[in-house]
Amino acid sequence: MKKHLFPLFLLVFGANAQAQQDFFAIAGKDTSGIVFSDFRVMDAASGASGEKIFSADASARVFSQERKGAVSEDKNSYNHSQAVTMAALAYDPSNNNLVYMPMFSSNIYILNPKTKEITLVENMVARVTSCDISSHITRMATGYDGNIYAMNNAGTQLLQISRKGGQYTVSDLGIVKDDVSNGKNSFTAIETGFGGDMIADAENNFYVFSASGNVFKIIAKELKAKFVGKISGIPDNYSVNGSAVNAQGKVVIASAKGDGLYEVDLSTLQAKPLPGQEKPHIYDLASKYFANDRTSANALANIDIYPTRVDEHFINVSVNDKAVKGNLKLNVFDMAGKNILKESLQVKDGSLNQQVYLKSLITGAYIVNVTNESGKILLNKKILVTE
Fold this sequence. Notes:
Elements: E1 10-13, E2 23-28, E3 36-42, E4 49-55, E5 61-64, E6 69-71, E7 86-92, E8 97-102, E9 108-111, E10 117-121, E11 137-142, E12 148-152, E13 158-164, E14 167-172, E15 177-178, H1 190-193, E16 197-200, E17 206-209, E18 214-219, E19 224-230, E20 242-245, E21 251-254, E22 262-265, E23 270-273, E24 281-287, E25 303-306, E26 309-310, E27 314-320, E28 326-334, E29 339-347, E30 351-357, E31 364-371, E32 377-385
Parallel strand pairs: 1-3, 5-10, 15-19, 26-32
Antiparallel strand pairs: 1-2, 2-3, 3-4, 5-6, 7-8, 8-9, 9-10, 11-12, 12-13, 13-14, 16-17, 17-18, 18-19, 20-21, 21-22, 22-23, 25-27, 27-30, 28-29, 28-31, 31-32
Protein name: T9SS type A sorting domain-containing protein
Organism: Chryseobacterium endalhagicum
InterPro entries: Secre_tail
């Protein structure tokens, strides 16, 4: 069933041929067991495999964050950057890196897809035991706040991986427990809740897609897992091992058993197969998108903020609409809802193209809100400030 057994690692990265690559996967070899093959790009529209980013046979250059230098790893163990048992992957859009963990290890690895260099983050927080499948980290996703989150099979550890000043730190947020309404659909039971993958939504909550096809909403602030339902429209023996949100806000799922990819509507949990005929062995998926990502229903197509990935502390506000007049207000909120920046904008003849300096905003995710003089919301948009 993938992740609560001995998993293999597939990295998929998606989009169509013209689109920006932003969908990744951990891929495995065509064997009856779990054997990591490579990290690769995936087409989130068709489910087809794309560029292989880094493989199990490649020469690995690993640098230790703690020891501040290159390290040599024991390739005969499960505790190295190309271990055969991998099941947790996330995409860090702040630096376009891939973050992953081998199943039987507490190590965290950061892969730079361009240079192929790997940073080892020695993690003393995770309590992973090779013989205890409940402790294995099998789910990982980037949160809406820009941090990486990882969870073990039994939910006894929800980890937050943060990056500040170029260094990664790890925190244990606690134990995720079943909501009292879950009944027989327990998040903490092997048959109903183990394995799979997770995605994040725009409220910084998470959805776990377990290997059995059950879906649980993880309310992060309460550390509760609430059973949402079971995916319909997939084969009875389909093992759900990877999940990530595509650009349309739908969830793409994949299987370690070597099957097609499916697109799932989170509101109905109805799945439909993607058109590709390929049946890759996939153990985890990752993307830069979020479920229920909110853009105001009143947002106008001809007002925009760019770039959304900010690495020079400037954003541009563009308006091209005769109906938009007078002064606009721009507010920047952090993910806790605190207003940390205010700016006035003047629209002339329905046109505006203004650069806004974000001053001393630190690395992280923010919501930029634009309203007109009456307070009507014209646009809400998430940005990510990087170093």
